[in-house]
C-alpha cells in the first residue's frame, strides 16, 4: 500500500470503526494509528488491512477485526506500567498494540511457524519489550506471573484455571468464552481473590486449543 493510502485507511479506521463505536481511550487510539497493521497480514491482503473485518493468516488463524482489537485492549485499562500476558500471538498485531501500551508483554503461541513469523515482524518494527514462547497457551506462562492484565485471542469453552491463578490482584483478564461457533467476550477482574465478570458482547474467534481449552477431537 502507498503511504498516503495507508494514512487515509488508518484515519478512516480510527474515525468510523473505533471512535464511532465508542472506543474512547486516547492511548488505545494512538496505538491503533501508530502500528502498521499491513505488516501483519499476508501480502496479497495488504490492501484490505484496515477494513472493518478479520482477515485470514497462515495455519487457519486470523488477525482480528480492528474494532475487536481496540475493544479488548481498552478493557485491559493499561497505563504503561503493566506486565501483560497474551495467549495466542497469531500474526503479532495485537501484541504490537499491547507493547505500545504496557511495560512488558509475554506472549504464547502454540503454532511454531506462526510464532516465528510474528517474532520476525515485531523485531523488524523495533519492539524490545516483547517476550515470545512457543507452548500451550492454556497453561499460561507461570514463570513471569503474576500479570496485571491477560488477553486471550481465541475462544475457550471456559476460562483456563492457570490464567486465573496467574492474574494479579486487581488484574484484568479479557477472554472469549463459549461454543465453537460463537462466544461471549468477558472481562474478568480479580478483587480480593474473587472474580467480577462483565460481558463485552458476542464475538466469534478461532478455538483455543490446549490442555485447558478445546481438544483436537472436540
Explain this structure:
The chain is α/β, with parallel strands linked by helices. 28% of the residues lie in helices and 27% in strands. The chain has 6 helices and 9 strands. The strands form 2 sheets. The chain has a 7-stranded mixed sheet with strand order 5-4-3-6-7-8-9. A two-stranded antiparallel ribbon has the order 1-2. Strand 8 and strand 9 form a beta hairpin. Helix 2 packs across helix 4. The longest helix has 16 residues. It is globular, with a radius of gyration of 16 Å. The mean pLDDT is 95.
Describe the global form: globular
- Listing every helix as H and every strand as E from the N terminus to the C terminus, the arrangement reads HHEEHEHEHEEHEEE
Q: Describe the main β-sheet briefly.
A: 7 strands, mixed
- Low-pLDDT runs of 5+ residues are none
Class derived from helix and strand content: alpha/beta
How is the largest sheet built, in terms of strand order? 5-4-3-6-7-8-9
Calculate Rg over CA atoms.
Answer: 16 Å
DSSP strand count: 9
Quaternary structure type: single chain
Number of helices: 6
Mean pLDDT: 95
Kindly report how far apart the N and C termini lie: 40 Å
Helix proportion of residues, in percent? Answer: 25-40%
Give the amount of beta strand, in percent.
Answer: 25-35%
In short, what is this structure?
With 218 residues, this protein is α/β, with parallel strands linked by helices. 28% of the residues lie in helices and 27% in strands. The protein has helices spanning 3-18, 26-34, 66-75, 93-101, 112-124, 161-165, and strands at 55-57, 61-63, 83-87, 104-109, 130-134, 147-152, 167-178, 183-191, 194-203.
